[in-house]
Amino acid sequence: LKRQWVCTPAAQFALFGLLAAAGLVLLGLPPLHGWLTEALAATPASVGMALLAGASLGGYVLYRFAVPLAPFAAAELAPAGALLGGGAVLYGGFRAWRAWELPAAVRFAV
């Protein structure tokens, strides 16, 4: 039989919150997006590619660790995640549309 790790819903919310905060900082979503675009502007292309690889690591943290370790909290907070993702798409699209230079538009398309 497979053993399952069981904890209280409050502990799951705390664990999911900590892992989600770590993942969202790495992803660079709009509330925490400022560092990623500035870092991409100030670095050469090879370093920028390494930063983008690190940004994809944020999604890996969420799906590989946060959801399996706290499934109840992940299910309860899924609508908030969907709103945050939709807001990120709208924010990035608006900022790319308002950009005057092509490299700036590419930075917001990440």
In short:
The chain has six helices and no strands. The chain is mainly alpha-helical. 17% of the residues are buried.
- What structural category do the secondary elements indicate? mainly alpha
Largest sheet properties: none
Poorly predicted spans:
none
Share of β-strand residues: under 5%
Could you spell the SSE succession in H and E letters? HHHHHH
- Return Rg in Å: 16 Å
Characteristic key phrases:
110 residues, mainly alpha, 6 helices
Give an overview in words.
This protein has 110 residues and is mainly α. It contains six helices and no strands. α1 (9-27) packs antiparallel against α3 (45-69), α2 (34-42) runs antiparallel to α3 and α2 packs antiparallel against α6. The mean pLDDT is 81.
What's the SSE blueprint?
Blueprint: H1 9-27, H2 34-42, H3 45-69, H4 71-76, H5 78-98, H6 102-108
Helix pairs in contact: 1-3, 2-3, 2-6, 5-6
